[in-house]
Amino acid sequence: MKRFVLAFAALILTAGVFAQTAPAATVKKADNFVKFKELVHNFGKIKQGVPVTYNFAFSNISDKPVVIESATASCGCTTPVKPEAPVAKGKEDKITAGFNAAAAGPFNKTIYVKVAGVDQPLELKITGEVLNAEDYAKFEKEKGNKKG
User: Fold this and answer.
1) Distance (Å, rounded) from C-alpha 44 to C-alpha 136?
2) Is the predicted pLDDT of residue 24 greater than 60, yes or no?
3) Considering the chain, what percentage of its residues have pLDDT values greater than 70?
4) What is the pLDDT of residue 22?
5) How far apart are CA 33 and CA 4, in angstroms?
6) In the 8-state DSSP scheme, what is residue 64?
7) Which parts of 24-139 are beta strand (E)?
8) Partners of 78 in the beta sheet?
9) Which of 22, 19, 95 shows the shortest CA–CA distance to 11?
10) In terms of Cα–Cα distance, which of 135, 83, 130 is closest to 106?
11) In terms of Cα–Cα distance, which of 38, 40, 39, 48 is closest to 106?
12) Higher-confidence residue: 71 or 21?
């Protein structure tokens, strides 16, 4: 019985040693390769049915050319366009975010930007409020009255 208890204790101790995780390797972040001038853009109030776009400008801050593998949106109402060519060291480029403004109401959309060699995508956000034609006309009239 002593041998059984001793063997069982040795097994538990061995399992505990092998269960230890190695320290995590240096995690590559997109922030180490590209620097966006801003990560969020608020369109404010926009008219329903009138698409809008915004250019998210970025710089390559790494010492090598950077490839934007993909730019995908959280829904079909948002259409991101990424650079097709690698962005050289120290150079700037942009990701264009298009929004179709089809449905009235507030919106908060995310664009996931995948940089080559980085596992975690970077997130860009567009926000705003889509107004129907009548509400947008009222908004424009009020805005005009405030200026005058």
Assistant:
1) 12
2) no
3) 81
4) 47
5) 56
6) S
7) 34-36, 40-47, 52-60, 68-73, 78-81, 92-99, 105-115, 122-131
8) 99
9) 19
10) 130
11) 48
12) 71
* Averaged pLDDT, 42-58: 97
Q: Give the pair of three-digit tokens for residue 27.
A: 């995690």
Task: Kindly report each contact of residues 63-68 with a partner whose C-beta sits within 8 Å and lies 24 or more positions away, as own/partner.
Answer: 63/89, 64/89, 65/89, 66/33, 66/34, 66/115, 66/116, 67/115, 67/116, 68/34, 68/93, 68/95, 68/113, 68/114, 68/115, 68/116
From CA 139, how far away is CA 46, in angstroms rounded?
10
Tell whether the model's pLDDT for residue 6 goes beyond 80: no
CA dihedral 131, 133, 139, 140 (to 10 degrees): 130
Write down how long the chain is. 148
- The two three-digit tokens of residue 74, written as one number: 């959280």
